[in-house]
Design goal:
With 288 residues, this protein is an alpha+beta fold. The protein has 8 helices and 16 strands.
Length: 288
Amino acid sequence: MNSSVAGRTEQVVDTDRYPISAPETPAWWEAVERVRQDLERDGCSVLPDFVRGFRHDELRREGSDIAPHAHYDVEVVNAYNISTDTALPEGHPAHITMQRRNAFVARDHIPARSIIHQLYTDPNFQRFLAACFGLPEIYELADPLAGLVLNVVRPGMDHPWHFDTNEFAVTLLTQAPESGGVFEYCPGIRSENAENFADVRSVLTRAGDHLIRRLSLRTGDLQLFKGRFALHRVTPVEGPTERHTAIFAYSARPGVVGSVARTRQLFGRVTPEHLAERQAVRGDRLLD
């Protein structure tokens, strides 16, 4: 193992609790197994204080510096992020619309020296995540905008109910609000073979509270999540402080670039890489 890589990791990550710089050791496998058990049982695993406590102020400062670059575009959406005009049967949950009021800072506005960029590109971090998700390897997105982003939720705003397009998600809370901004999710509400529209509709119409789990994350907490199969949202942020979350986007295959339509929706622009992309082939037949 490259000693410079290990040293950089240990400066950022609490490697006493999460020994990601010592891959394949018994302690490393113990940490991996804990996450796997969480994912199997709950569809989600939280690693508290993954980033060392003395780096939390730095995390907050870095987020505050780049948050003004976030692209804001309040729009009407549904949980599947498909057109609200899509022809679907009456009563389909995609007919239930919400306002998307969060914003994203694209990767090309995130300095390479920042903590979240160091983590995203760290081979030890990637190897640990791949093992946690039971994959032989994961790849950084080839997408110059969406590979690493900062999700910004301003006071009074939220991130509405949705499903992810990727089967797994990795996030790091870099700034917690005073109150609100709670992560809510419905683990396994759908599967590769079953959309389970009835339960999805129940949650969206506020009749399915028993299906919802809630997490109040703290600055420095890392979250691994099966977002393709879990309906999830962030509740409205309360108080004067924004909620900032780094989203680390990886894929089980190399060369992945987002679609033109989705990229323009999230970032207000596209790049030559997006214009040249080919439509991704899903591993399932879910709506989106």
